[in-house]
Amino acid sequence: MSHRLFFAMVCIGCCAWLAAAAVAADLAADTVADFFVAPDGSDEFSGKLATRSSDGRDGPFASLAAARQAVAKLKSQTGGKRPIRVLVRGGVYRLSEPLVFGPEDSGTADGPITYAAYPGERPVFSGGITITGWKKGEGDLWTAQVPRRKEARPMFRSLYVNGLRCTAARIPNEDWYFSSGPGQQYKRDQAARRDVNNRTSFRFADEQIKRWYNLDDVVVVYYHCWTTSRHRILEIDQNQKIVRLVHPSAWPMGWWGKDERFYVEHVREGLDAPGEWYLDSTSNTLSYWPRPGEDMATAEAVAPQLEELLRLEGDPEGGKFVEHLVFDGLAFQHTDWVLPPSGQVDAQAAAFLSTAAVFARGARNCTFQRCQIAHTGGYGLWLARGCQNNRVVQCHIHDLGAGGVRLGEATLPKQPEQQALRNEVFNCFIHDGGKVFHAGVGVWIGKTSHNKVHHNEICDFYYTGVSVGWTWGYAPSEANHNLVEHNHIHHLGWGQLSDMGGVYCLGVSPGTRIANNVIHHVWAFSYGGWGLYTDEGSTDIVLENNIVYHVKDGCFHQHYGRENIVRNNILALSHTYGQIRRSRQEEHRSFSFQRNIVYYKQAELLGGNWDNDKFLMDYNCYWRADGQQPIFPGKLTFAQWQQRGHDRNSIIADPRFVDAENYDFRLREDSPALKLGFKPIDTSTVGLVGPAEWVNLPKTIKRPQMKME
Predict the structure, then answer these.
(1) Which residue, of 2, 129, 231, 342, has the greatest Cβ tally within 10 A?
(2) Interatomic CA distance for residues 202 and 211, integer angstroms
């Protein structure tokens, strides 16, 4: 089973869970509310009844927009002195435009306004339309006509059948092709990087690229180390085997290696496997190859039409905010993505994306709790400019075109009221991302401070789990005092991208703490695949009480930075290039590394550059489980390393884990690491908390084995 099909199948179980969780969480709740919304309601009704009256003359509203207007009227009568509650009955609400809440829709501290799922029911706000009228086509294909859009672009770029994300017809079906180099040769320097010609063409081999039917529909997906770019084809030189693209990527083709990878999608000729689809933009005919067991006579096919489903639109520049709103137990599904006719589409972490399924600007003291955000074309939720003191609690965010949650932006406004500050992501299950924009991050923290990301489970992304900071080098701090704690972060990379981390840090970040996380199974395509990664300029960051194991290139890697503290971590079983890696050497202390346990079987202990001695290492316990003695940089023995001034109080000794082979890193009572001052790490506090059905949800997902080779 392919990774794409497998992770799509996760969605069916997730939807079933959401209904069960809503029942468990809400059955005991009071069903009294000010207003009700139901699929069979009417916006002409009073909205004060949960069901239609016996005479059919009154009942719930049909839309949240009508409830919003009724709330505004009631709020004007009460002066915001008491809470207002809207309960939404189960069912699917198809949106033709996003739900928008402005400052005038705000509640107050004493009178918050809540839009919640009716107890035991699951309301879904969908940005998609259902595709009907399926007819049997040639071979295994089924076809349907879809409505024509006014915009001069395909009607949609995503399709879901029976709750599963389908694959746009692609070549090859799995993995990728390797290019034959850039379209023109260049010297690898900054001038070459700026040259548009180097960023718009590459060479291909044999029949990898052809003059397929309706070439305007075709999209080339090209890999650039830690990201991918998407392009339309301008022209193909079949004789020289060069393809020229409509718009440039940020990186020259071939910059990261002559044989960079690519695949093509939305190709009619590639429609040759179950679960694949193709939309002919000329005839608006949709073709689909059903998966085994799918009956297109009864299947639900959904095509997303919107990029946003819910938008909180404040005006932070004008001092107007959306405040004290609560969204509880609602599901937001089906958003699309757009490929612009020109422009860069391959920024790190998919940070170029301009919106999300749930987007907020200028929101304060708002809460999203027990919500589901799924089947997206881009990010799931974004608390952008001016968002302060908001909470994202126990939300299930999955099947994502890009990443899960974004906090802040890539630029920092000078005025404090316009900055994103003090937002919280707590107890969320965020997984199965990067389906369109592979570089999407589980939780991305940009130029924003005093945020807290804790007790989440983040997994199954092709890039980084949590990214903290967005300033390269030693520029003044624009992201500080961020806490990333008690998260379970695992199964990242999947051999797709490179240069990633379980937790990835950038820039001067005083007060930032990465603590009590469990990180494992991080596997890059080439280099990278680190557990804890302090990249360019990372400074004044504390990384402690983390357990990291089974990563590709190093449990801890510092590219370059200053005065970071790495203490009381268990770092185990990195596969290549060293257990601990230090890259750039600078004339200040890189980090202090104390009271850590490093346990390994292969690769070297310390990889990279250690010549200038600008680091502090002591009171550590090192152990190579295959019985060989650790070798230190310069092929030094441990005694010689100590004579050089490092690890003078450290030891080479078996740390006495309970069962390291099965990743039980608890210490036995006779562990020699305890005598060094190592404090046992309690993993019972890591990951999701709360009801058993919520905590155990990640365990119900069975994933293919990650190939770590």
Answers:
(1) 231
(2) 16
Sign, CA torsion 531/442/263/160: positive
Length of the chain: 709
The kind and range of the H/E element at 185 are none
Render pLDDT for 376-388 as a digit per residue (tens, 0 to 9): 999 999 999 999 9
Joined together, the tokens standing for residue 569 give 């971590």
Q: Residue 171: which region, alpha, beta or left (left: phi > 0; alpha: psi -120 to 50)?
A: beta
- Model confidence pLDDT, tens digit, residues 572-625: 999 999 999 999 999 999 999 999 999 999 999 999 999 999 999 999 999 999
- Extract long-range pairs of 267-272: CB within 8 Å, 24+ residues apart: 267/169, 267/170, 267/171, 267/212, 267/217, 267/218, 268/169, 268/212, 268/213, 268/214, 268/217, 269/169, 269/171, 269/210, 269/212, 269/213, 270/169, 270/170, 270/171, 270/173, 271/141, 271/169, 272/169, 272/173
User: How far from 190 is each of 226, 228, 251, CA to CA, in Å?
Assistant: 19, 20, 11
End-to-end CA separation in angstroms for the chain: 19
Return the amino acid letter for 436. V
Contact 270, 258 (CB under 8 A): no
The 3-state DSSP class for residue 199 equals: helix
Strands 616-618, 91-94: parallel, antiparallel or unpaired by DSSP?
Answer: unpaired
Q: Check the CA dihedral 448-452-458-464 and report its sign.
A: positive
In terms of Cα–Cα distance, which of 1, 212, 31, 186 is closest to 119? 31
CA–CA gap between residue 309 and residue 127 (Å, rounded): 6
Which residues does 468 contact at the CB level (< 8 Å), separation at least 6? Answer: 445, 479, 482, 484, 503, 504, 505, 506, 509, 512, 514
What pTM was computed for the model? Answer: 0.95
Coil vs helix vs strand at 575 = coil
- CA–CA separation, 147 and 131 (whole Å): 9
Question: Are residues 704 and 523 in contact, defined by beta-carbon separation less than 8 angstroms?
Answer: no
Token representation of residue 175: 């993995």
